[in-house]
Amino acid sequence: MRNLKEDIKKLYRTSALEKLIIAKEIRKVNLIRSLMLSGLCVPIALVLSLTYAHASDSDTLSFMDWQRQILTLNFVVGFVSSILFLLSLLAYYRPEYRHKLRHLPHIILLMVGLWGTICTIYDQAVTDNIVGFLIISVVCSMILLIQPLRLLLYLFLVFLVFAYGTSQAQDDPTILVSNLTVGLITLIICLGLSTIQWRGSLRAFKQRRVIKAQKKELEENYQALLKSSRELKEANETKDKFFSILAHDLRGPISSTLALTELLEEGFFEEDESERKRMYKLLQTSLFTTGKLLENVLLWSRSQTGNISFKPRTINVFAAMEANINLLKIMAAQKDIRIINQVDSGINITGDEDMINTVFRNLISNAIKFTPNFGKIEVVSGYNIQENGGKQATISVIDYGVGMNEKILKGLFRADSKTATPGTNNETGTGLGLVLCKEFVQKHAGDIQVKSKEAEGSTFTVILPLNN
Fold first, then answer.
1. H or E element that contains 464
2. For the chain, which end, N or C, has fewer CB atoms within 10 Å of the first or last residue's CB respectively?
C-alpha cells in the first residue's frame, strides 16, 4: 500500500524542469489549441442554433420548451466562445498578456464540457442516448494538455453535473443507470488517455530541449573549433613570416661579420691603425646586434611556449632602471649619448625582475639606436589614477632621434611585421624586442604606449600597477 502511494506521488510530482516546460512549451501549445477550439465552437453553436430553430417535428409544449432551452444554451455558448476566442487571439499576438490569461485553456475545457453535458441532459427529454456527452468528453480531454490532477477535478465536476441533470431529466431508472455507468467509464478512459498524452508530451518536450541544448553545444563547439583553427592558422602565418624576417635580418650582420673577419685575416689594415680600429668597431657592433637579436629570439620562443616562469617580487623602478642604464653605458658612450634617469625613487611595483629588466633594457637600447651622436635620452615617471580609484605607475623612455611615421607605428609590437629601421649609425634589428616588451608588460596586467613623430623623436610609456 505504501509503495502504491509513493508511485502515485511520483507520478504527479512536478520537477523544476517540468514546471519550466509547463510554463513555456505546454502553455504555448494549449494557447494555439484553445484558439482553434474556441474558434470552432462559435460556428458549431451557430449551426446548432439554426438547426434547432428550424426543427418542426412537434408543436407540443414540451418540445417547444426543449427547443427554447437548446437555442438559449447554444446562443450563450456561442457568445462566450467568441469572447474566449478574442482573448486567446490577444494572448497569442501579445505575449505580455499570456501570463494573465494562462487559465484560458481550463476555462474553455470547462465551458465545452459543460456545454456537451447540458445539451445531453436536455436531450434526455426527447432521446435516451448520451452521444453528445461522450463525444465532448473525449474531445476536451484529448485536445487540451491539462495536468492529470486538475483534469480529474474538472471531469469529476462535469460528471456531477451530468449525473444530477440526467437523474432529473430521465424517468426510466434502467436507462439512467446505464447512462451514468457509460458516462463514468468514458470519463475514466478519458482521464487515462489524457494522462498518457500529458506524460508523452512532457517526455517529448524534454527530449526536444535536450536535442536543442546538444545542438547549441555542438554549434558552440564548432564555432570554437573554427576560431581555434583560424587562430592556429594566423599563428602559423605569423611565425612563418617572423622566421622569414629573422632569416633575412640575421643574414646581414653575419655576412658583414664574415666579410670583416676575412679582411682582418688577410691583413689589409695592418699599417692603418685608425682603419683597423674602425673595422674592429664595426665587427663589435655586428656581433652585438647578432647577439641581442638571438637573445630576443630565445626569449620570444620561450614566451610563446610558456616556458618562462613568472616570479613576482617587489621591484624598485628607479634601481632597476639605473641598473639597466649602467649595462648599456658602453653602447651609449660609443655615440656620446647621455641617459638621464629621472624616475621617482619611491615607485615600487610587484613583478618578475627578469621580465621588467628585459623591457627596460630593450626600450633604452632602442632609444640609443635611434638617437644621433651627442644626443640625450630621458627616463621619467608619473602616475595614473584609474576609474576604480587604483593607481598606476608610468615609466617613459624619451629620445629625440629620428622618430617614426604612421606606417611604422601601426606595425609595432607585431612579430609578423617588419618595422625595424636602421639606427642613426646604421644599427640593425627586427623589432622583436618591442614584441617581447608588449608581452611581458601584459603579463604584469599593464600596457605599453608609444608616441612618435618623424625627425622629432619617440616616447615609449610603460604602464604598470603600483605595489599594493
1. strand 457-465
2. N
Spatial distance between the Cα atoms of 277 and 275, rounded to a whole number of angstroms = 5
Regions of the chain with pLDDT less than 70 = 1-15, 54-64, 237-256, 260, 268-271, 285-286, 289, 292-293, 296-297, 299-308, 415-432, 468
Give the three-state DSSP class for 218: helix
Helix runs in 266-337, H state only: 273-304, 317-327, 329-333
Residues 6 or more apart whose CB falls under 8 angstroms from that of 9 comprise none
Query: In Å, what is the CA distance from 14 to each residue of 17, 19, 84?
Result: 8, 6, 28
Helix (H, G, I), strand (E, B) or coil at 338: strand
CA distances (Å), origin 90, targets 26, 102, 145, 422: 18, 12, 20, 75
CB contact set of 35 (below 8 Å; sequence gap of 6+)? 85, 88, 89, 92
> CA 431 to CA 236: how far, in whole Å?
19
392 sits in which H/E element: strand 391-399
